[in-house]
Specification:
About 55% of the residues lie in helices and about 0% in strands. The chain is globular, with a radius of gyration of 13 Å. It is built from six helices and no strands. Helix 2 packs parallel to helix 4.
Length: about 100
Amino acid sequence: MLENGSIERITGALLRPKERELAKQYLAEVARGRANVLGRYAQDPDPGVRADIADVLGFSGDAAAQPIVESLIKDEDKQVALAAERAALRLRGSDPHGDR
């Protein structure tokens, strides 16, 4: 339903605590193939939004998300950088506890 639609309202919900988790779920469902659209939100002034976008991109399985996630690893906010590191590991198909 959202394949070619705007995700502005959904990403805006990341700023509302009561709607945040549901918004992340929706974004995760539409993220594959839309890394370039979500990448715009990786520059959001709110570190919580940047961290959420890193998480969503990490779960997307979209190789195009890798450069966006890699740039967030250098974010000045530690929570964003940690979320980006986890996302990068997911995108690489690695287990953070070692190969099992």
